[in-house]
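Researcher: Re-running this chain for the archive, since the previous output was lost when a drive failed. Same request as before.
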Amino acid sequence: MEKQNLSADEQMRRLGNRWVFDCANRLMADENMERKAAFRQAVRAYHLLELLGKGEVEFEYLKVNGEKRHARGTLCHGISAEFDSYEFKNDKPDVGQTDFGIITYFDLDKQKFRSLHIRNLLTSRSLEAENLCHFVTSCSIK
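Model: Regenerated structure tokens:
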């Protein structure tokens, strides 16, 4: 069998597809979501994680108590001095997804890390997955 030389973009696309499939399958199993709804939610979550890694993002989700939360967050250096100087508790910061189905992000309004469950991520029904989050500021790579 011939070994393929995949570009970095193609490798990331394939990893992203696998993450979406794994996430959707877990939502169907753990949350009893229908297939279409589970895949839609998994794509929304993946898109949010992608944007959080690129800069400042605005999004909405339901808190555990059912309250709607509007958030501004990032997982990107150069946006917040507080995030840039944060001292992680171990050598391997596992930011972004600490437990399956949980997205961890740095809240720019509260200047602390916050988390949400993928099932609670909200969008307007009229918006496509690509428009789920409003991208505000780009990231400076360090």
